[in-house]
Amino acid sequence: MGGGPRTFPGGLNKWQWKRLHEKKARDKEKRLLDQEKQLYQARIRSQIRSKLTTSDEQSYRSHEQQQPNYGPVSPQDHIKSLADRFMKEGAEDLWNQEDGPINTPQHNQHRSGISEPIDLRKLIPQNCSFQKARHFCTNVRNDVAENWRTEIPKFSNSWSRQNNLLMFGWRMFNKNENRNVNNLNSLLNFRYYSMDTRKGNRSRKLGFTRNENSSDEDTEDDEDEEEEEGRSGGSVKMMSSAALGKYDMKTKKRVPLKFVENEDDLSLHVEAIRKEVRERSKQKSESEEEGEKESILSSKRFDECDVSPLTVKALTAAGYVQMTKVQEATLSACLEGMDALVKARTGTGKSAAFLLPAIETVLKASNRKSAQRVPPIDVLILCPTRELASQIAAEANVLLKYHESIGVQTLVGGTRFKEDQKRLESNPCQIIVATPGRLLDHIENKSGFSTRLMGLKMLILDEADHLLDLGFRKDIEKLVDCLPRKRQSLLFSATVPKEVRRVSQLVLKREHGYVDTVGLGLETNPKVKQFYLVAPHEQHFQLVHHLLTSHISEVPDYKVIVFCTTAMMTSLMFSLFREMKMNVREIHSRKPQLYRTRISDEFKEIKRVILITSDVSARGMNYPDVTLVIQIGIPVDREQYIHRLGRTGREGKEGEGILLLAPWEQYFLDDIKDLPMENWPVPHLDPRAKVKIEEAIGKMDASVKEAAYHAWLGYYNSVREIGRDKTTLVELANQFSESIGLQKPPSLFRRTALKMGLKDIPGIRIRK
């Protein structure tokens, strides 16, 4: 085991103790580096200030004559090297070409024009008014000007008469229009200043580049001078400066308070720009679609492709003459017998895209084989939900209107197993539309159903991504093992994640085709307006009621779908709005299949109705003329949000979608930030409606509320971003129980609490 203590002060083990000291060492090193940085910056400031008053004879030393020196550099050399970083390639110095040529000075050509160092701090006394400071600068200006005339005898007096000089705020006026810029440049070797040149008999000044005054009076005075200079018509040309010359100076003026108060929030500007971009893209898409009757339709007709005349007749009778773009892209490959993986959005006619090849496959197979007592199954279609299976079977019957010898059957859960067997025996069919679970039940029953599948010619997986999301991967693998290898397989999916590609390798042939009808465009219908609304969770019932009543008053022929997170939440919401005398229907997984089928068919046919449903209606269901989709709570993922929204705006029509979130669900907006989402402001809620909602909740059965609480807790416990903090999750769940009229949170079974990781969490009640 080794010697040494097993624990350290504070109950730390040796690794925690080691990391603690490593962290302390890093913090100490960081503090030392900060101190060195501050010392270095202070040294740079002092060197810059001292350079303003010292001779710059060494600044003209040629860079080519310097020998490589890898030892410590002097402060002046260090400053020079830092300044040279800002020089452009090929430039001699940081002067502009418009400033005139640079004359290389001779040794001892001139001396510093300032005989004594000037303390800059004295120029701006703290307790001095602006007029006193100006008077002080005027006196110093005259003294320095006199020093320039007396201490520089090598320069002619004509030079001083021909040039006006202003250094550190001191001016000398000339009387002649002629100038000698070269002599001025050779005399003034200051890298940290700029010069203004003017035409005509004007004064010139040399001052700090971009040095703004800190006082308001000085700023106003400078602005007045600039206005006078602008009216004179002369162009101002500034000499360049080294960056370190303004190292210790303010880089921009202070903004007056009145402008700061009136300044708008940057986020509002960003939101306005985004809204403008969305409007432009929408206008562009609308202008591109003006020439077409429908955006999803193509110019190709069904009678132009290799489809049975009876099928074309049925399509014409149903009102389908032109193909959609998805059908045009996929039919040719599917009719040729190729395996294909097709990526297509919902509501684009993809059901007919695989039903037409399926019917042609059955027709070809019936011509080859002899009459049998029980015909084999030629086409098998797998769907994730019962509603989607029933819908596909109904669409197939429309296409088989004039094909009397071809039959379609559905095998889904929620019905009696023996009734399915009797139906299969009494009404033989060639096309089976099934869900994976019930289909496996028939295969494993050894009733002869697996024998009929040995003659299968085509396998179709619709909504393949949803099949995998529901956990049907193992069932699909078992089904594929029971099917013949010599077959055609088609996979249709709205998204193609990694799991779908893995299943495609299992189901499809190696040389299968890939058809992408979505491309790089928007994953949602551009004609569907998308909004999100963030509000406290206890206001969601009242907000949904407000959104529904507002939409009903605005749209006479309304048809609304409200998506809830779980089946029990769907039942709770349905019971609430039924108590409030609204025309609502409900569909979720806890309802029997016959009831779900009846409600689904009823919702397709009528208008002015509200369907409250779970995710069983999120994919594949073709409900026509849906005007509004409301999603309460975060969906499972981004794809689920897109599929829910796809229930509206089908067949190129317009629609509207609203996502209702709690503040702690707002992180989901990052997953859909690339979609054209707009913020829906929280509306003013009527207090009378709140009272009615509370009364309706009070009349509801307590068992429905308890089941909704358990379902709510289980759903959000499975959401990683929320469920990982169990304490916060329980607090939110208890707030939800109060909002639905429960005096105290319902209790959980001990086994359920253990599975959810909620045992010993404050606020969880365990059932004894």
UniProtKB/TrEMBL annotation:
DEAD-box RNA helicase Q domain location: 300-328
The protein's enzyme class: hydrolase
Record's compositionally biased regions (Basic and acidic residues): 277-286
Keywords carried by this UniProt record: ATP-binding, Helicase, Hydrolase, Nucleotide-binding, RNA-binding
Domain notes: The Q motif is unique to and characteristic of the DEAD box family of RNA helicases and controls ATP binding and hydrolysis.
Role played: RNA helicase.
Family classification: Belongs to the DEAD box helicase family.
Name of the protein described by the UniProt record: ATP-dependent RNA helicase
Organism of this sequence: Nicotiana attenuata (Coyote tobacco)
Record gene name: RH48
